[in-house]
Specification:
This protein has about 220 residues and is an alpha/beta fold. It contains 5 helices and 9 strands; from the N terminus they run ββαβββαβαββαβα. The strands form 2 sheets. It has a 7-stranded mixed beta sheet, with helices on both faces. A two-stranded antiparallel ribbon has the order 4-5. α1 (about 30-35) links the parallel β2 and β3 (about 40-45). The radius of gyration is 16 Å and the shape is globular. The chain starts with a strand and ends with a helix.
């Protein structure tokens, strides 16, 4: 990873949110927005993806968690890159655990490509997480599931998607949700009318409520 933005809890630190940005962005892209809605006892970590050539963008180099080869659910994916990126996410989780935050007080989240990695990383992590927030995204390497799910099949997952998303179509999120629901029954999918490939006040409010529900103050 190319660094990270860390915003410490403003009260006693008892929980952590690790949030992964979308393609071409950095950890700064979401840090200030999420800092405004997270509970005071939550530490926020927004890492920045490494810079690499992205096939979808004609090999142009940009921050990317793994290579994106197309915007199609049927095309081959960067399996090695996704698995490698998930291991790095797991290291971030383990760092928080070593600092005294139990895994079930750590939420993993992300937007677009980052949301896809958050979902995959959660299912590949054997310890129970506090929850997953997956925005405008999809479950990568779907053909490997449910067999690939090593953990967090009972963890609460909030998927959010705009019905006017021109980048990651709504049906991508819906298809992932339907598939995940077969082995991760505590998944929930919310659709936002008129929302494109971005966030909204309503969505952020739902995320804030979700955070308080799954990780209440101790």
């Amino acid at each position: 990873m190319a660094g990270k933005v860390v915003i410490e809890a403003s009260a006693k630190h008892t929980a952590t949110l690790i949030f992964l940005h979308g393609l071409g962005d950095t950890g700064h892209g979401w840090a200030s927005t999420l800092a405004e809605i997270r509970p005071a006892y939550v530490k926020l970590i927004c890492p920045t993806a490494p810079v690499m050539p992205v096939t979808l963008n004609a090999g142009f180099r940009m921050p990317s968690w793994f290579d994106l080869r197309s915007l199609s659910l049927t095309e081959p994916e960067d399996e090695a890159g996704i698995k490698s990126a998930a291991k790095n996410v797991h290291l971030l989780i383990e760092e928080e655990e070593k600092a005294g935050i139990p895994s079930n007080r750590i939420v993993l989240g992300g937007f677009s490509q980052g949301g896809a990695l958050a979902l995959y990383s959660a299912f590949e992590y054997k310890k129970q997480l506090g929850g997953v927030v997956a925005l405008s995204c999809w479950l990568p390497l779907r053909q490997l599931f449910p067999i690939a799910a090593l953990g967090n099949k009972e963890t609460r997952i909030l998927q959010c998607h705009g019905d006017s998303d021109p980048v990651v179509p709504l049906h991508w999120g819906q298809e992932s949700y339907k598939m995940m629901k077969t082995f991760a029954p505590n998944s929930n999918f919310k659709t936002y009318m008129g929302l494109s490939h971005s966030s909204s006040t309503e969505e952020l409010s739902d995320i804030a409520d979700f955070m308080k529900e799954i990780m209440p103050s101790l």
